[in-house]
Amino acid sequence: MVNSDEAPQGEGVEGSPAPEVHAETIAHLFHEHNRALVGYLRARLRSEQEAKEVAQEAYVRLLQLQKPGTPGLFRAYLFKTATNIAIDRLRRRGVQQRAAQAELFESLSASSSSDDPADQLLARERTEQLLRCLEELPARCRQVFQMHRLEGRDQRAVADRVGVSERMVRRYVTYALVYCRLRLDGLSAEQAREEVEL
User: Fold this and answer.
1) Does the residue 159 lie in any domain?
2) Is residue 8 assigned to a domain?
3) What is the pLDDT of residues 46-57, one digit of tens each?
4) 176 lies in some domain
5) In this structure, are 137 and 168 located in the same domain?
6) What is the 8-class DSSP label of residue 11?
7) pLDDT at residue number 137
8) Which of 72, 89, 103, 164 could bridge 168 with an S-S bond, Cβ 3.0-4.6 Å?
């Protein structure tokens, strides 16, 4: 067996690239494909900053591979790794949004059902503020939100009535909830619109 001291230059143990060759390959990959990778991730994540962070994390993972394989497979592995990281982020984002949505309405209903007049007054004020936030939404988004969350219609009924897909109904409702949460947290209408996208 050839030990690492006797390995030919450019190869590590068992024929895998030496660390410096591996790093050079990653650097070449970065120069050749980083713009395409970040663009691909930006389309998925809808955030330039997150796209850059995920790309960077994917390169780090590539550098940490013990047996990276042939340089020809690096590009495919890079995009696959970045896609998996992006999916994880989107999943976490969805969980956070659902938690924020539940918290928004639970806090309002808890305050309104309290016997304390101060809690009831606060709940009324928050409800009025929430209704003003809903008025700031695009007309179709507001209509979908009202039908689904306030009137209690299911997604299919709302989709049929408005003429959009059920997926679009979910997007409108999520947008409305996150937008209202941001507005109630003190962001301006413009800031909230920048934070959440339809």
Assistant:
1) yes
2) no
3) 889 989 999 999
4) yes
5) yes
6) B
7) 93
8) 164
Flag whether the pTM goes above 0.85: no
Token pair recorded at residue 181 = 């949460």
Instruction: Give the tens place of pLDDT for each residue, 59-103.
Output: 998 888 766 566 668 888 899 999 999 998 888 776 556 555 555
| C-alpha separations of 66 from 16, 25, 57, 63, 108 in Å | 9, 14, 16, 8, 53
pLDDT at 15: 43
Of 58, 92, 126, which marks where a domain is finished?
A: 92
Q: Where are the alpha helices (DSSP H) in 46-184?
A: 48-63, 74-112, 117-135, 139-145, 155-162, 166-184
**What is the domain extent for residue 122?**
114-195
CATH at residue 62: 1.10.1740
Q: Are 169 and 159 in contact (CB under 8 A)?
A: yes
In this prediction, residues 18-45 reach a mean pLDDT of 84
176: amino acid identity, one letter = A
Tracing tokens 């969980």 back to the chain, one arrives at: 95
Please say whether the beta carbons of 82 and 37 come within 8 A.
Answer: yes
Distances in whole angstroms, Cα of residue 117 to Cα of each of 7, 107, 111, 121, 193:
80, 16, 10, 6, 34
